[in-house]
Amino acid sequence: MVQTTNRFFDEVARLMNDAAGVAQGVRREFETLFRSQAERILRELDVVQREEFEAVKDMARLAREENEALKQRVAALEQKLAAANPPVGSAGAPPAEGAPGGIL
Asked: Please, how many CA atoms are within 13 Å of residue 12, restricted to the half-sphere of its CB?
């Protein structure tokens, strides 16, 4: 009787091991199928990948920094130009046409 009971438990244990192996295989197959479907959907939606997004983000940051530097440079050049050429109507400006002392 002891041998029969051991054989029965051995068969049940083997059956459970086989069932666990099948369950793992089904899980892997489901994950593979789900992943491929998700990738296909994302490709169809034309979603940007993280690496591309980060690259464009860095390019935009660099462009902003360059734009700010150019703004400061233009402002400095405008100040320099304004200092070299006083505005019309000031004491050192030539008289306007038709004004007294001007050329007619």
From this structure: 6
